[in-house]
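Hallway conversation turned thread

IA: we were arguing at lunch whether anyone had actually written out dTDP-4-amino-4,6-dideoxygalactose transaminase end to end. Turns out nobody had. So, for the record, here is the sequence (375 residues) and right after it the structure tokens. Reply here if something looks off.
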Amino acid sequence: MVLPYGRQSIDESDIEAVAQVLRSDWLTTGPAVETFEADVARIAGVPDPAVSVTSGTAALHTAYAALQVQPGDQVITTPLTFFATATCAMWQGAEIVFADVSPDTGNLDPESVAERITERTKVVAGVDYAGHPIDAPALKKVAHDHGALLLEDAAHSIAGLLDGVPVGSLADITTFSFFPTKNLTTGEGGAVVSPNSDLLERARMFKGIGYERKPELMQEHGGWYYEVTSLGLNYRLPDVLAVLGSSQIKRLERFKTRRQEITDRYNEGLAGIEELILPAHREGASPMWHLYPLRIQDGRRRELFDHLRAGGIGVQVNYIPVHHQPLFAELGHRKGSCPVAETYAEQEISLPMFPDLTDSQVDEVIGLVRGFLGA
């Protein structure tokens, strides 16, 4: 049996919550969605309910639409991410500009962004790589100084904090993912949050197919009346998934504590090995560790990957740099343009990380890594 690098944590309370919705009159567009959106907003520290959507990718697309990204705009982002951070902006017509990352966290480097930002930049999109929050204050200043806005792709980091401020309150707009391997799951799902009510209203319109049912117009024309006022897509998260998210949120702090315990155990067990770089943890950050991104510096990442897989450990690599993908090569992006991110990606291997991982399983992984290196 292979030990996965990530997996969902489902208990009987989750199953019963979903069963209750299945027994109800509302499978979608009902009260469980409203409850979940309020729950996510509370975790994110924002005043208005979140906009729930069908996936983390849908959350990114919805956020870019809310930010009114359009052809001619530039979006600056990191190459060390899942490619949807970039491609969702492309669906809105944006030109993608890749900036480099900081060597310690793998997060978007504000200095690199400052070097590449232009008057055409509409959005700076940072990613909380592995669950460590971006340097939102610095990135926000660079963006705002040039008339742009900051999007935080927090697919890895719901319940994270930076200097006591929740992830979700740090940027102009923030997106979450609730895929099964993430820090809480709705099966598939995502959300958009923002301190800006206007941005959120645009997001809600976009994910709701772009139509409105205003009470005053319904009173005038009839209870069936609606108006299509903008283009949108059906990205609505159903109640049967939303209720799973609300159930999971009740255990979110427990998940976070356990992920930190696992990170600490890996750090202790792998310390002092010259070939390895362990994940950075900056002062003031309280990460929600989604990954344990180990880096091996001796060029044997592929050998270590195969060694661990042969030992029944389902490790992963996060990520192939986005600008190395054929789609982006065709658009003129070239290897060597983000050397720090490229080096990071060449060295990185994600060890198993999920709340139900036991100490003995962590120790097994540590033993296999140390054995490979003769440490």
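OS: looked through it. Residues 305 and 315 are 7 Å apart (CA to CA).
IA: good, adding that to the notes. The chain is about 40% helix and 15% strand.
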